Amino acid sequence: MVLTIIISFVGDTLKSILNNRKQTILLNIQEAQNREKEAQQNLKRAKEAFQKAQQKVFNIQQNSIDTIQQDEYKLTQKTQEEIERLYTVKQEIILFQKQKLVKEILKHIIDAAFEKVYQKLEQNATLQFKKEVMDAYILLFCDYQN
């Protein structure tokens, strides 16, 4: 009977210790599962943030490429426009210089012609003839100036 009481007392105590240990283990398992869920959620959020960051990097790279291409196109256009403008200015300068040269040549020709006319008139022309020739040359000269 003492043995039965001892076994019963030790058995109850052992059961109680085992139940406490079981409860502690179950609580530890529950906490571990909760930490695992929390870690998985944190991992999921981190993966999502990483994917968003990757997308932002891709967008920034794409925008940079687009901006570079647009700037290159604008620069090419401005350079082409500047080349065309300089070509036009060059053509205008050449035309102006040609016109200036033609005027100078014509002036020398007219001066030479007047000189010859004066010489001929001095040599053998009457006053009336001299007047008519001079009027004709003056008329030609005035027409040229206009």
TrEMBL record:
Q: Give membrane topology per the record.
A: Single-pass membrane protein
Q: Which GO terms describe its biological process?
A: proton motive force-driven ATP synthesis
Q: Does the keyword Nuclease apply?
A: no
Entry keyword set? ATP synthesis, CF(0), Chloroplast, Coiled coil, Hydrogen ion transport, Ion transport, Membrane, Plastid, Transmembrane, Transmembrane helix, Transport
Listed InterPro entries: ATP_synth_b/b'su_bac/chlpt (IPR002146)
Identify one Pfam family in the record: ATP-synt_B
The keyword tRNA processing is annotated on this UniProt entry? no
| A GO term, aspect molecular function | proton transmembrane transporter activity
Q: Where in the cell is it found?
A: Membrane
The GO cellular component terms are:
proton-transporting ATP synthase complex
Instruction: Tell me which stretches of the chain form a coiled coil.
Output: 15-63
| Function of the protein | F(1)F(0) ATP synthase produces ATP from ADP in the presence of a proton or sodium gradient. F-type ATPases consist of two structural domains, F(1) containing the extramembraneous catalytic core and F(0) containing the membrane proton channel, linked together by a central stalk and a peripheral stalk. During catalysis, ATP synthesis in the catalytic domain of F(1) is coupled via a rotary mechanism of the central stalk subunits to proton translocation.
What name does this protein carry?
ATP synthase subunit b
Q: Which organism is it from?
A: Codium fragile
